[in-house]
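Feature request, filed as a ticket because there's no other form

It would be nice if the structure record came with a short human-readable summary line next to the tokens. Right now we just get the raw output. Example of a typical job, pasted below so the devs can see what we mean:
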Amino acid sequence: MRKFALILILISISFLLDAKSPWLGKDKAAHFTYSAALTYWNYGVAKDILDNSKQNSLIISVNFTALMGMTKEYSDKTLGETYWSWHDLAYDFAGIACGIILINNLR
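Raw output as currently delivered:
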């Protein structure tokens, strides 16, 4: 539970930063938070609703969330709204890792 509290503190601090750095800012905190939440939620759907095993549910959850993050970056690049950002993907994958930690500790 201490890890979870530390993660929430770091997210909160990140939301306060309005940095021009490619590694900090509200967008990065959003990528992290949404990826963690989606990983946890996708796991619940795969395990509880679709009745998969724990291992298969983790695989489904991680792959689906990663696919959503990459699709988002591809659409940013293709639609010309912003650009492909490896920094965003790094925060997506950090969020996925956090989601796995939450799954293992809260479920």
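Something like this underneath would help us a lot:
The helical segments are 2-16, 26-49, 54-79, 86-106.
Residues 2-106 form one domain.
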